[in-house]
Design goal:
By secondary structure, this protein is mainly α. 66% of the residues lie in helices and 0% in strands. Helix 4 packs antiparallel against helix 5. The longest helix has 35 residues. It is globular and about 60 Å long. The chain starts with a helix and ends with a helix. The N terminus is likely disordered.
């Protein structure tokens, strides 16, 4: 056998003979992240509501502080007003010292109502767009997240209105923004309805819808993308809850950066006083509020309370997305098992 023939035989058959009985194994398929089915609609609504209500209990004190910081110095130039609140920790201490520990949970009942209704609708709707394959199209997750956020924000707007009023009101020595002086959640709903009618309960919705549309689109799109990226990186076991936790942390940072200006405008629109014709005394709408805040308080005025926004939104995003993901995994396993039976 000549040398060229020997080389040809060696390269074809390998070191220990021919490989005809052991064909090369095909590449491993990519990880499948999203189940192809969705739970029963009431169950899906309940999963989103339960996940975000659980997160709300832990993050509501930061929401109180965020609201106060965003109302502090309203339509006043920097340095021309007394600053009662100077940061997250100092503000938490001031509220706790003045209003007591219960003051740190002001508006919790309205907050739970808002989180339950808004996120039940929002996450339930998004879950079905995923199951239908709509979120997988180019830009589909952003569009689905924004639509889900707009729908949830509109339906739950009265609860956010009452929550903002209750979280803003306090004793005169540390009060910021307009003080509505409600006696509780039910009294707030009744007072607003008697004074402004049914439409009065939706005052400020023109600021809430853009806020939640931007936040929801950013949150759900980055969470889905980050979860897929983390899973494909194979840092953790494919079924580990650490995948959802890492994705939620990435999502929390993105949401804070994009959502803060919208959050400031929404808080101002919800809390402003109204005249005899039920029109806002300070702002005529979203764009009017945006321009007035920018002209009087500067660009940084639109980022007031960004520290508390991050301290509140990041943990809230992490907890709500983690709870939601874990609850959905259990629901999918349950419904998948029933479908097989």
């Amino acid at each position: 056998m000549t040398r060229p023939q020997l080389l040809e035989l060696t390269s074809r058959d390998g070191r220990f003979g021919p490989h005809t009985s052991c064909p090369p194994s095909p590449p491993a398929p990519p990880l499948a992240l999203a189940p192809p089915v969705a739970p029963w609609p009431p169950v899906d609504f309940a999963l989103g509501a339960l996940a975000c209500c659980g997160a709300c209990v832990f993050t509501n004190p930061r929401e109180v502080v965020k609201t106060r910081l965003q109302l502090q110095g309203e339509l006043r130039a920097r340095g021309s007003y007394q600053r009662h609140y100077r940061g997250v920790l100092q503000a938490l201490w001031v509220v706790g010292r003045t209003d007591g520990l219960r003051g740190l949970q002001k508006g919790l009942s309205a907050g739970l109502l808002y989180q339950g209704v808004m996120n039940g609708v929002r996450l339930g709707f998004y879950s079905y767009t995923e199951a239908a394959g709509l979120a997988a199209a180019p830009g589909g997750s952003l569009l689905a997240g924004a639509t889900a956020g707009a729908l949830g924000a509109f339906i739950a707007s009265p609860a956010y209105l009452v929550k903002t009023h209750l979280q803003a009101q306090t004793v005169e020595t540390i009060a910021v923004g307009h003080q509505h002086n409600h006696q509780g959640v039910s009294n707030a709903f009744a007072t607003i309805y008697q004074r402004e009618g049914l439409l009065g309960l939706w005052r400020g919705v023109n600021g809430a819808v853009p806020r939640v549309m931007v936040g929801s689109a950013c949150q759900l799109a980055t969470f889905s993308s980050a979860k897929e990226w983390v899973a494909q990186s194979q840092w953790f076991n494919p079924n580990s809850w650490l995948i959802a936790l890492t994705a939620a942390m990435i999502s929390g940072v993105a949401v804070t950066i994009t959502m803060t200006p919208f959050d400031v405008i929404s808080t101002r629109l919800y809390n402003q006083p109204v005249d005899e014709l039920h029109r806002g005394r300070l702002y005529g709408g979203f764009l009017d509020c945006l321009l007035k805040v920018y002209q009087t308080e500067g660009l940084l005025g639109l980022y007031k309370g960004m520290g508390p926004v991050f301290v509140r939104l990041a943990p809230h995003t992490v907890l709500s997305m983690l709870f939601w993901d874990l609850l959905r995994q259990r629901a999918f396993r349950y419904y998948g098992g029933r479908a097989q039976n």
